[in-house]
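Dear Dr. H.,

I hope your travels went smoothly. While you were away I took the liberty of generating a structure for the chain from your last submission, since the lab meeting agenda had it listed for discussion. I wanted you to have the full record in hand beforehand rather than looking at slides cold. The sequence, exactly as received, is reproduced here:
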Amino acid sequence: MRKLVLSFLSSFTGLGLILGTLFFAASLTPSLVPRSPVVQGVLSGVCLAAGYGIGVLFRAIWLALQLPVPSGAALRLGRGAAVGLSVAAAAVALWQASEWQNRLRALMDLPPVEGVRPLLVAGVALVVFALLLLLGRLFRVTLATLSGWLGRRVPGPVAVIVALILTAAIFWQVGNGVIAGAVMRTLDGIYARLDAAFEEGSPQPTDPRKTGAPGSLLTWEGLGRAGREVVAAAPDADAIAALTGGAAMEPLRVYVGLNSAATVAERAQLALDEMIRIGAFERSTVVIATPTGTGWLDPESQQAVEYLLRGDVATVSVQYSYLASWLALLADPGYGIETARAVFARVYDHWRSLPKETRPKLYLHGLSLGSFNSDLSHDLFQVIGDPYDGAFWTGPPFPSRTWNSVTADRNAGTPFWLPAFRDGSVIRFTSQDNKLDDAPAPWGPYRVIYLQYASDAVTFFDPAALWRKPAWMQPPVGPDVSPDLIWVPVVTFLQLGIDIAMATTTPLGHGHVYRFDHYLDGWAALTDAPGWTPAGLAALKAAFAAQRAAPG
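The corresponding predicted structure, in token form, is as follows:
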């Protein structure tokens, strides 16, 4: 047994253990989203494995180049000192982790945690590391087996290269084709069942102006869970009148579910036909709201625009998926764009055919993947002769086309997480603190507004964080970004990857969870807030906050 234990321990690479331990310590530093002990353990285990793998690779390259290797007492002394310092760094990081997390939690108005439960974090990390290590050693055994078999038939270097390619292909096919495929099928089934579920909080409407009601061109069943929630959601005309203290109209919401028709073109046409049926183009404002991957529309935004316009607004949405946004991107990234383009073309072409003096204002809106697809729903040449009135895009994902272009070309001296673009007459950015009135020039006839939080990893994930410090980490950082955040190659990339998955676990007003009053600022700037004064908008925010806080 003793020989087995010693043999097992000696199979580890010293440099790999040192780098892995340092990566483990670095993984305990804060990133954009607070982490639970289990999530932290998973992240730390992945970082430990990544550091170990880099150390093993570096050692292999060193030996392959036949560079000198220290030996004897100097090697043992140096290795012992390095291991000791690495373990000490990990221990200090575990001890400091609670304070790091609590400083970040305080920025998000979360209560402090008493501790990060270091034993749980370490235990989960070791389990994750062991699983990844097993996978790595299986890769190495497969590579050695194939290399040996090929080495009897072709020259050695060729055998190694071919064996490496074949091994990588085998693991890719198993991982992507078998495991990932099974996971996707399972998740697809889960989300499909959720989409079909009926909830007591979304009763079928009886008002013929409501989608899915008697007389509608769409069935209640075909809307899906997300669509039924949108149509049944508050506020109605009475609620708007009560909160705003004036007369209000019944807001119009058209929603076409994924199962409402067989093709994208048919669903887009259904949306337009339903809009015409209920008189959507007779309202002062029409919003094409592109949903997230699940078909969800943020009720915080929906309520903000409907209260602001006192119900004089029609919103149209067409579902393109029932998967979570990140899964929809992996499963079929072009499908949401196809739907967004079809819907925009139908609605825009009809809107453009109406008399200019009487037609409603037309705006685009989207959150997250909805923002991404909304941005790609049309091109300049399609609208330049008769542009729509503007767009309000929230939490744009990091690959977003226009967002990337504008942010890269931001005015000198403005931060990456809240840029200013040229004179602000066309595009403006805002966050928790409303900055939409700070531009030096007045609004032009066409407006684009971005609402984004500095703590939103969906927006500020940076693939290049693998090897360089992201621009948004340059000081000054955002108001809800921890001052303790540091950049460490590889580790920061992995931290941000976890942050994307956890971005919706933050409180309202942080991460990827956007709040009513911030939406209200955006809609007010986009539409000029007809009939409202600054004092009135402040009163509306206070009334909504009181309503939210009221029991029941």
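Two observations you may find useful: Residues 39 and 179 are 22 Å apart (CA to CA). The first strand starts at residue 252 and ends at 256.

With kind regards,
E. W.
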